[in-house]
Specification:
Elements: H1 3-15, E1 19-23, H2 31-40, E2 45-49, H3 55-65, E3 70-74, H4 79-87, E4 93-94, H5 100-109, E5 113-114, E6 116-117, H6 120-128, E7 133-136, H7 144-155, E8 161-164, H8 173-177, E9 185-187, H9 193-197, H10 201-220
Parallel strand pairs: 1-2, 1-9, 2-3, 4-5, 6-7, 7-8
Helix pairs in contact: 2-10, 4-5
Amino acid sequence: MNAHASATHAVESFLKERLICVAVIDDARDAAPLADALLTGGLSVIEVTFRTANAAESIAAIRKHVPGMTVGAGTLLSAEQVKRAVDVGAQFGVSPGLNEPVLAAATAAGLPFFPGVMTPTEVDRALQLNHRHLKFFPAEAAGGVAMLKALAGPFAHTGVKFIPTGGINAANLFAYLVLPQVAAIGGSWMAERQMVVEKAWQKIAAMTANAMKIIAQAKSG
């Protein structure tokens, strides 16, 4: 298996959980307890966003202390951030938009990457750059389920899969999951920033478990 095939296999493996917790972590000391809470709820994939000064340290802490968690770096806006993410052990990367220098840096580092798209033109460009797992952002504001169905028309045959993120919660999760073009969901409702600050680990575990029940229903239906 070559490097590209191996990376693709790894991505498809963790996307089978159908959910990525998108987390903003202000204090790196909360990173491992948060990851443990998600695992307790049945989820082993987290995206730590580079919106705080402690993002890289938080990723390193999860990799060190919670080996059962797949951890990625989100909100990567520069090649330098990609390097920092790789250096601390990030296993995948995500950006809110289609930033080609960022994509180039991720490709050079062998980092599986989900660029953000919202329009047909951006989807088309991402496919030209050989990216077929795309973050659809901001999902609800950009048309939600209806927009994803519309995008499937011209692009489904390419094998593109979307990871809608933005405005998704337990109430509308199922509607996204049943779309064949959706690989997984990115969401923060089960571990919102203030919940992490308050160290509400039991609440986070419970909300995660509820999300995983909805995912199980979608898989069985």
